[in-house]
Amino acid sequence: MLQQRSLLVLLFLGWCTSANAASTGLDLTNSLAGWFCVGLFVIAYAFVMLEEKLHLRKSKPVLAAAGIIWVIIGWIYTQHEQSALAEQAFRHTLLEFAELMLFLLVAMTYINAMDERGLFNALRGWMIKKGFTYRQLFWITGLMAFFISPIADNLTTALLMCAVVLKIAENEKAFINMCCVNIIVAANAGGAFSPFGDITTLMVWQAGKVDFFTFFHLFIPSLVNFALPAAIMSFFINNKKPHKDEEDLFLETLTYKEGAFPILFLFLATIASAVLGHVLIHMPPVLGMMLGLAYLKIYGFYLRKKGIVDLKNAEQSASDFMPKNDENPITKVPLPFDVFQPLARLEWDTLLFFYGVIMCVGGLGFMGYLTLLSESLYGNFSHTVSNVSLGLISAVIDNIPVMYAVLTMAPDFSQGQWLLITLTTGVGGSMLSIGSAAGVALMGQARGYYSFLGHLKWTPVVALGYVASIYSHLWLNASIM
Questions:
Q1: What is the pTM of this model?
Q2: Distance of alpha carbon 310 from alpha carbon 158, whole angstroms
């Protein structure tokens, strides 16, 4: 069933880069090579869905599929003496991915840097110290995911909140599964009303379809999408307090390291740079983000130099009180900050997965499938029905290729319809664990606690929130529809 749905999505996916290519390139939609590439992508995505069972990282099959698809395209276009056209299409698709990847690279580096400085451990310690019940933890982690994801993006927010739940409720499998579902719904909903909250909203903003502040029209619909399922699920929680062990007592004493809050401030300054650069001088947001990476590297240089001095002073002080034969005095001074450590800890598998999916979709689009689907989808149905349907499709396949396809086709949407497709693709993926990057990531992080079937149990409740959020948007934002 999932593979059949993937095939339908895949056919839809085929129209992206081809919105321009179909008129100048070769129509390969009815060729053996075209159908082979379609089947290859279906198989690759089936492997992605089975990641939990096969323990095969999701980036590997889509990377292989992307490479083979573009090799086939290159070979066919070379036979028709149009190799330059294929090369241009590949470079265009690669450039679009590069902008997204660099944007995410900076955002994730900042999150990892704040994690290294102990900001999130201090948060975990505070939550343990307060002695919240499971129901309170369910709501607190959900609300934090909803309000953090607009800044930190839904993927990294979900990973952080999941780490908190895994630490506090280590042996409560049913509760952890429910919390993971709630966190995914909250993070995806929170990410839908901010250009920084999800890759799909970032794509829409970078493409100039929706202004920065217009995204906030989706705040109430997004809140409805999170709050309604959470309210229903909370009734099924055993409202007791988690058991504390010795490690929990240790976590209660944790504090953040020097530089935690300055790095948080620099992250906000980086976001401001990206927004102002896009609004005032019409440069891609990635320019402001890369400038923000320079902020972190310069401040990291200061932290490292100061840390080296502090470490030497501490070691000298310790040596004055330790026996001369003790070559490894123990100090409480943390190791100096190294900005390349947060870079190394990025979710590279996820970033490479995005590359594979976008390049696969770009290749299929260049073959002509996206034009074929766009004509049947938006030509035969209203924009509202089509956009709601695409949100349902994003529950089966990641919302990134779905949004990438829509943007490349560039339909004649009103601001309200662009907001609707942003909302539906952003929160529609919450209905299944494989429908969003946050869900796929948590299946790996909380393996043994959170699974595809564990999420599927709550899909009807999440779908109720999906429908309610759409009606909220259509009602509240009727003037721009």
A1: 0.68
A2: 35
